[in-house]
Every structure is written in C-alpha cells, then in structure tokens.
Amino acid sequence: EGEGESRAAAEAEPSGSHGDGAFLTVLRTRRPGAARKLCKSGQELEVVRDEANEKDPLAIKFVTSDGQEVGYVPLMAAEKLAGALDSGSWEASATVLTGGDGETVHVMVRFRRPGGEAPTETQAEELEAILASAREAQSDQFRGKCEQLSGALDAVLGHFCSVSHLFDREELDVIETVRSLDLRPKALLVRIVMRKRQWLRVRHLCRYVEVGDVRSAVGRLCEAGLLDEMSSSVEGSSLDAQLGLLSATELQDLAAAHLRGGGNGGWRGRKKRDVAAALSREGEGDEQIAVAVAQLIGECVSLNAEADRVLQCLQFAYFLDDSQGLERFLLTHHGLCNYPSYELSSSPVFATRDDFVRYQAACAKEQELHQALESNDLEKARALVSTSAQALGFYLEDWSRTSTPSSTASTSTSTEFPKKPSPGLLTESWVHVGIAHRGISLLEKARRYADAIELIQVLLGRPEQPSRRGEWWNRFAIDLEHLGKSETSLEIAETGLADGWVRTGHRLSLQRRVVRLGKPPRRWKTPSFAARVAWQPKEVVFEARPTNSRAGTKSVFVGFDDEDVTVEGLALQYYAREDQGSWTGVHSEGGVWGVIFALLMWDVIFSPVPGAFHHPFQTKPLDLDSDFFYAARREMVDARVAEIERGGWSKLLEATWAREYPRKTLCVGLSWDRYGLDQLQTISRCLGSRGLAAIVQLLAQDHKHWRGGMPDLVLWRTDPEPAAMLVEVKGPRDSLMEKQRAWLMEFEACGVWCEVCRIREP
Residue 392 contacts by C-beta under 8 Å, 6 or more apart in sequence? Predict the structure, then answer.
C-alpha cells in the first residue's frame, strides 16, 4: 500500500492539485535517511525562504515544528516560487505525503493568502501560472539530470565505435543492451556504476528522485540482465557483509534491541565498526539478529558481475586508466572541474584486443603493488614483482635467500643497450618494467645485491622507460660496492655516463662516484667533470634553538618572533630581517615554478601532437613526464624559450591568466588560488628573463626529473632594484641531495642568485 502511494505521488499530480494553490514536490537533502526519520506521513512542515544560503539565495527549505531543517525544494522549482513568497502576497505550508518507512519524502506545498483571506480570481490565476511554471521547471530539472547521467554513459558508448575491435561478441551484446536502455533506467545504471559497491539497498536508490519510479527502473535493468534480481535479503552473503549495508544509527538501534551492555550511554555514540563487530560476534549464533538484519536491509540489487566487468573495460578503454570514471562528465557539466581545450587523437591506442587485455591486466597488477607496498604486505609485493620480472625474462628465486657484501657471486658488466627507446607508454611491457623497477629496492632490502644487479641488467637492456636509466646505473654501481667490487663499480659508473639518457642528479651522482673511485692507481687521468663534482654552493649558516631534536621528525625551532616554526619558516624570518636584505619570500619548492611553467607554456603543453590526448578530461599530455615530450615539440619549445628570454613572458602570463583563470581550468602543476597574477609577475620580473627562460627550458626538456629538487624558498625584493634569490634550507641533520645540487648549479650558470641556508643547533 505504501509503495503504491509513493509511486502514485511520484508519477502524477494528486487530485485537485490544479487550481487550489497546491504544488507537489520531493524533499531534496544530502541526508535522506535523517529526513525520512524526521518526516512521517501526514506531518506538517513549515516552508521558509533561505536568503542566507550562499549557494542559492533563492532557496526554499522545509522545517519541522521544533525547528529542525529537513531539506529543500528542488532548485529550479524554488527559482520560480521564491518570488511569490518574497513579495509577501503569499504564504506556504507543507504536508508530508510519504515519509517514515517510505523511501522518498514527497511533500505537498499549499499556498494561501496572508491572514487566510480568499484570493481574487486574478490572484488565483497568477498563482496557478507560477505553480505551473514551477512544475515545468521541476520536471525539466529531473529530466535534465537524467540526461546528464545518461549523456555521460552515451559519451563513453560513442567512443565505443573506435574501440569495438577490443571486445568479443558477448561483450558487444552487453554494450548494445546498455545502449538501448531508456533514459531513466540508463540514468539509474550510471548512478549504480558510480557507487562502486557490491550491494545496494533499493530504498537508498530512491534518493535519486530524478529517476522517478526507481522500482520500475530497477525492474527494467534486472530484465536486461544488467542487475542481479532483487531479493528480500543479501542471499549468500556473510553477516559481516550484510551489517556493512546498515547505517550507524540502524546498527546502534539493532544492538540496543538484541545486545546487552554497550557501556555508559548504551550503544549510542559508539563507532560504527565497533557496533558491527559486536553484532557479528553475537549474530553468528543468534537467528533473531540475522532475521532482524535482513528485515532492516530490505530489497537489494547488485550490478551483474559480467555487466560490471564490461562497463569497467569500456571506461578503461575511454580513460586509459582506472583513476577516472563517469563522474568526470558530471563534475564538468556542473562547472566544478573545467578541463583545457585540445585536439583529441583519432588513432586507436590498442591495435588488438590482446594488447588491450594485457595492458589492462598489467595496470591492475601495478595498482595491487601500490596497495601492497602501502600496507607493507611485502609477500604480495614480492610475488607481483616476480611475475612482472618473469614477463621480462628474469626469474627470481626464493626471496628468503640473501647475498651478503662478501658474496663472490659472479657479475657480468656487459649490458645490452636498447637500439631505440620505445615510446609505447600504453603497453604491457612498459608497465611490467615499472613494476620490476620497484623490485630493485625490495631485493636490496633483502640483501640480494647480486640478484638486484641481474634485474638491473635486464631493465637496462629494455627499450621501455628510458628516464629511469640514470637510477638503474646508480643502483648498479652501488650494489657492486655492497658486494665489495669497487673496480667493477667504477667501470659501471663510467659506462653509465656514456648513456645519453642519464641526466640531472643521476649523472652528477655517477660523476661523483667516478671521481671518488677513480684515484690512482685505478685511474691516473683526472676526468673533465672533476671541477663540476667539486663545486660547492654558497652557504649561509646561523644557529637557532630547537623545540624538538628527535631523529626522524621534522625539526621545529623557536622563531625570531618567539613562536615555533619549521626550518623553512625560520629561514624566511631570517631573510626578512633588515640586516639580511629585507627579502619577501614564500616556501615554494617547485610550486611557483610549476604554475609559471604552465602559464607560459600553455599552448605548447596542449598543442595537437599525435597520441597526446585521448579523452577530454586530461590535465596534461600523456607524454609530459616521458622522454618524448620535448622531442615531439622541439621547435615550439625552443621558440617559446627564446620569446621568454626576449622579455615576452609578461604578456604570456597575462594572456593565459585572463583566458583560463575565470574557469579555473585544470592543468598539471597549476594552483590558481595559491599565487596571484601580480605576485607571479613580480617574482618573474625580479628573477629576470634569462633565469626564467632557463627554468622553463629545463622543465620542458625533462619535466619528470627537473620538477623535483628545486630550492625551498623563493625570495624577492624590488628596492633598490628588482632582485631574486633561491634558497635551499637544511636543518641540523639534513644533507644536500644530488638533484638539489644539480638545480643550484644550473641557477648559478644562468646568473640566478642562489645559496644554501644551514640552520644549526647551539
């Protein structure tokens, strides 16, 4: 009976609703469960304008007699009705039609003249015109929402034409079934896909009021085989899984009814997981609890496993990874996320279904590896690394075996250089090389240095991920020293320096090793880079009183204002003093340069390069952090760097800011709210065109390596003349890394003032 009433209220205007000042609507809220609990069928609600609402000054809210806010009139309807209430010509009250155990709160709003006076015929006609407009706006809003949801899926399905060769016949049948769905069932399917949960309670799906008759839409999806059939309980699921579907309040009520104790205050206020654990312990042997849980849950649906798999594959083929989904379309539609404009690549990414399946499986393993390392599950991480290493032709033995520094295991120094680095960023082998790369540190931690060297040799012989070659050569040389083979380590360091893909801090580290190990009698000739290795940046040292001196924790000091500050904050105070030059500054590291790089190179970053952009929700080209970004845009980059060096940076900053700031367009490295245009212009002017051009050129040539290691502080002043200084701050137990040293060397070479600030304890 309740279901029929809810459905009737959702599908049609009640009898007498036209011409009597009545408007049927639904209660919109972010807390539907709490709203249902507060609103019982037949309950009277106050209708109140909410002019103070920051997001919607025309908002109309529903309030209980004791002042509890329960929800709002739908946005587009409120826009039509607000004027009638604001004019003072009409007052309104509301009655809950369905509430309590009903899934959606339907409300009848009735308008009346102040003081209960009868409206004139003209006033009644004017009100009816307003209500008719509100009904139409509400209908348009709900339909528009369904079209947004359906449109997100249709966009992915539209892309399907170019990737249809990646799916087999059964998968194509599922995709065609989805394509043929009507508007509202398709909208509900998108909602379910975005929820990413195994089981969903039907009463909770009814919060999606734009779908209308949710039960009918669920039935259609079940008939199409996209949802598993509804059941009165989650059949075959464990009690723990069923308890996970209940809210904290439901669990607390259930515990209060079936369990003893609960501590002071009973089960109210207890954490959800604690209450669920207590019910699980007792429920396994108590049929009453199991029955009560099933009754509370009610009817449930689950996305069919095969349909889920096909839809996930379809999304993966569109977005090329698992980090984005259909919600991107909705966020963009609402203006919450705005993406750059660029030309999409029309060429297929994967030539065959096998290429696609293998790449997707490799990406799944890579995600598993990240999760295993985050949770410190070394056994699983080692198994995943072993699988990827095996795919590359390297077989790892028992992980419990170790090779100590005194091991005499033979190690070949010959390494087969790849003939040509592979630009195949979206290939199975590219991902497996990345996974195997993580295995180097795992082997080293297990003291299996000889095995780590063998794995490094395999990776050095591969064409994928050439940007990692510098790290591999360094680890190769270091592990040889662990094995007591200094002579061989020197040879490997020299061989690594001949590799053109070794750059930045990795090259400097190898050079330092050659100078250290290459003394007579091993080597009699001083290498040409000895002076570069011996270079030391200018240092400024001052003492400060620490408030903590524990190893492994970030140093905190008493500042010049007697407040606790970090080392970077203390350095900013030091340089702001008059006797140190009255510098203005920010703790930025690479932040400010990432913003400036994006603004100055915007049209270069998003230029039409084949294979760079495959969907409209990218904040960078796929190859930005690879070794192929600069090669594919060499002429554009060089021309832009020359323009910046000639002083054209100011107009470039202004033009990009004026075009993109109003939309807060997303771009890698760009934070619109962190720095203002005036501040960026001042920093750039103080740094100078030559220094600015050098930074942009390095980031464009090798964004992956140069984006890290930049000095901590950016300091500037305009009096007596524009000047800037970049400062790397080091606490008492910090040392300068090679990448940081490389940046300081580059800055000094192009005439940028830079130094290291060391803070010591008394």
Answer: 429, 432, 433, 436, 458, 459, 462
Q: How would you write 273-317 as a 3-class SS string?
A: HHHHHHHHHHHCCCHHHHHHHHHHHCCEECECHHHHHHHHHHHHH
pLDDT at 160: 75
Q: pLDDT (tens digit, 9 = 90+) per residue, 236-268? A: 677 888 888 888 888 888 888 888 765 556 777
What is the Cα–Cα distance from 698 to 686, expressed in whole angstroms?
A: 19
What does 422-438 look like in DSSP terms, one character per residue? Answer: ---TTSHHHHHHHHHHH
Buried b (16+ CB within 10 A) or exposed e, 562-581: eeebbbbbbbbbbbeeeeee
pLDDT of residue 265: 60
Is residue 143 within 8 A of residue 209, CB to CB? The reply is no
Q: How far is the C-alpha of 549 from the C-alpha of 733, rounded, in Å?
A: 9
Tokens (6 digits) for 334: 């609402």
Q: Is the separation of the CB atoms in 340 and 603 below 8 Å? A: no
Tokens at 150, concatenated: 């359906």
pTM as predicted: 0.82
What confidence score (pLDDT) does residue 737 get? 92
Distance of CA 344 to the CA centre of its chain: 22
CA distance 74 to 80: 10
DSSP letter assigned to residue 265: T
What radius of gyration, in Å, describes the C-alpha atoms of the chain? 33
Map 523-552 to HEC letters. Answer: CCCCCCCHHHHHCCCCEEEEECCEEECCCC
- Is residue 9 predicted with pLDDT exceeding 50? no
Helix (H, G, I), strand (E, B) or coil at 335: coil
Q: Measured at the alpha carbon of residue 253, what is the angle toward residues 252 and 259, in degrees to the nearest 5?
A: 80
CA distance 163 to 310: 13
Please report the pLDDT score of residue 67 as a whole number: 87
Q: What tens digit of pLDDT does each residue of 94-131 get?
A: 998 875 444 678 889 999 998 888 889 898 899 999 99
| Alpha carbon distance 477, 487 (integer Å) | 10
Cα separation of 324 and 615, whole Å?
A: 11
d(Cα 476, Cα 469) in Å, to the nearest integer? Answer: 10
- Position with higher pLDDT, 361 vs 203: 361
301 class by beta-carbon count within 10 Å (0-12 exposed, 13-18 middle, 19+ buried): buried
